[in-house]
Amino acid sequence: MQLPKDFDRYFRERWRDEDVAALMAGLDGEPSVSIRVNPKRLPSEAEPEGADGRVPWCPEGFYLKQRPVFTADPLLHAGAYYVQEASSMFLAHVVRTILHSSFFTLRCQAVLDLCAAPGGKSTLLRSLLPDDCRLVSNEPNRVRAQVLAENMAKWGHPNVVVTQAYAADIAHAIGKTEVAQRPFDLILADVPCSGEGMMRKEAEAVAQWSPSFVAECAALQRSIVSDIWPALRAGGILIYSTCTFNPEEDEENVEWIARELGAEMIPIPVEPSWGIRGDMRKEREIQDIRAHQSSIINHPFCHFLPGQVRGEGFFMAVLRKHGSEESDSEDDAESPKALKRKKKDKRKGNGDAAPALTVLPTDVLDDAGAPRVELSLEEAIRYLQREALVLPAETPRGIVQVCFRGQRLGLMKNLGTRANNLYPKEWRIRSGYAIPHTLFA
Predict the structure, then answer these.
(1) Which domains are seen in the chain, by residue range?
(2) End-to-end alpha carbon distance in the chain
(3) What is the pLDDT of residues 28-48, one digit of tens each?
(4) Closest by alpha carbon to 320, among 232, 241, 251?
């Protein structure tokens, strides 16, 4: 891989030489392919064709030996599984740890995925959270928010709200809308970043990289977290993640959040065999070596480096906001830093005006009372291409749910002599050359 000219120098100034050499070697390797199954749609024993082992930190995740044409599999469109990079599935281990740990003692009622498109982490969250916990999946970009709504609709769960808003507007909406009646118990901030971790997959990530771009991204990340901070309840959890390696966007930003906004870092236990690294900065060398002598490593910072893990570059850290929900700490809320954040949020959120928060529909596929009609593999692909189908003669007239292998794909209106295809136009499979197949027999 031809990396930017300053890339090697930048990291050698901040990392040990052997870590930089290992990273460079890893970036020359081939990326892996992985999927995560939907436990609400497929049995726990289901294993995809061409499976090449499970993702160790996420039991629902599988590596594949090669990349199939996913578009031609109706079960993908039915939300039976999601194509997701293995490193980002580490969120499953983190959320399970949080929900079962003493430092998160109150019931989880409301969760926000702040920068959620296209939906990989939101679908994962929805599979792990209690059914009565509301998940708000948000994306500020209008086009990407539409993709997010599609994927959440396909994954399927009634207690999901998809929104399009900026962080400050969400904070401003707390207590003023049905969507955000109270501060969130947990917020995932998978913030926009310089994309170093995607360099093996995306040429744009290589082309756009520079030290100045890294600094720009780090400042944007601090701004986003500052804006959303009032929306997190006292004692609540922030999961911060990027697909980068550098300390400006990773370790230094997490330390800034803890210091400036008021939080403590929560170490996450990981298995040494997973290959996950902790603090990568030169000055933390001794601490990192000692940690790797233990049977379980407790990392306040979790780095995924290509070549050392089977996945792409990724970083995650967990912080708990100071205070407790019982007090929601008036003293803390009126501290100079908190007051400064309130003024900033009020300015960005247009004072007392209605919050600029758009809710997108996620129920376009479901009509629970409608009769179900099973389609063949070929018919399912034709339906997803929005072609006309002739339904069996015994099919009741009116709205019906069409399914493949028992998994609903969407709706049709049976008129008797013909049936109108109600699959959303913007979701249709556009390729006419896809050979129908499925990963799950």
Answers:
(1) 7-29+86-360 (3.40.50.150), 372-423 (2.30.130.10)
(2) 38
(3) 999 999 999 999 999 988 999
(4) 232
